[in-house]
Amino acid sequence: MIKIAPSILSADFANLGRDIQRIETADYVHVDVMDGLFVPNISIGIPVVKSIRPVTDLPLDVHLMIDRPERYVEQFCDAGGDIVTCHVEADTEENIHLALRKIHDKGKKAGVVVKPGTPSSAVLPFIGEVEMILVMTVEPGFGGQKFMADMMPKVQQIRSYIDAMNPACELEVDGGVDPDTCKICIASGANVLVAGSSVYKAEDIPARIRALRG
Ligand code: DX5
Ligand code: ZN
Question: pTM to 2 decimals?
Answer without folding.
Answer: 0.98
